[in-house]
Write a structure and sequence with these properties.
- By secondary structure, the protein is α+β, with helices and mostly antiparallel strands.
- Helices cover 17% and strands 22% of the residues.
- The model has no long low-confidence stretch (mean pLDDT 87).
- The chain has one helix spanning 23-33; strands spanning 13-16, 43-47, 54-58.
- It is globular, with a radius of gyration of 11 Å.
- The two termini are 13 Å apart.
Length: 64
């Protein structure tokens, strides 16, 4: 389990994101559109079109 107190910086991705994208698609979005490293240990939450849907991308050193 991930402890929220152990997490570093959180980059909230504003706007609607197609949540059908898998891990690779979201990591590519972080790298190319925001010029950030998805393997940095930072947290990248994405919001979908619905108010209750979101995904977060986080690299823990072994996987997403």
């Amino acid at each position: 389990m991930i402890k929220l107190s152990d997490l570093g910086q959180v980059y909230i991705v504003c706007g609607k994101t197609d949540l059908r994208k898998g891990i690779d698609g979201l990591a590519t979005l972080v790298k190319e559109q925001f010029e950030l490293d998805p393997f940095s240990g930072k947290v990248f939450p994405f919001c979908g079109g619905s108010k209750d849907r979101f995904k977060a991308l986080y690299w823990d050193g072994q996987g997403f």
